[in-house]
Amino acid sequence: MFSISLANPFEVLLGVVFVIIAVLVFFGTFGVGVAYVFSNIKERWHEYTSKKKLQVVSNTAVFIVILSVLIALSATKLR
User: Fold this and answer.
1) Which residues have C-beta within 8 Å of that of residue 48, sequence separation ≥ 6?
2) Does the pTM of the predicted model rise above 0.90?
C-alpha cells in the first residue's frame, strides 16, 4: 500500500484533492445516468398514454424500492 509523508503539506494536499476528485467522479457517474433517464421520461411524457404513464411511474417506483432494499442489505452486517 502507498503512504504519504505527513511532513510534506504538498503531498497531503495532493492526496486530499485526489480523493475528492475520485469521489466526485464516482457520484457523477450515477448522476449522469439518472439525468439521462429523467430527461428521456420528461421529453416523452406528453406523448405517453395514461396507461403508459402509470407503467413508467410504477417501474420507477419498483426500481427505487429494489435499489433501496439492496443498499440496506449491503449495509447490514450478516451473522
Assistant:
1) 56
2) no
Q: Are 11 and 5 in contact (CB under 8 A)?
A: yes
Give the C-alpha separation, 51 to 17, whole Å: 48
Q: Grid coordinates standing for 24?
A: 466526485
C-alpha cell at 42: 420528461
DSSP, collapsed to helix, strand or coil, labels residue 23 as: helix
Tell me the pLDDT of the chain (79 aa) as tens digits: 667 677 888 888 998 999 999 999 999 999 999 999 999 999 999 999 999 999 999 999 999 999 999 999 999 887 7
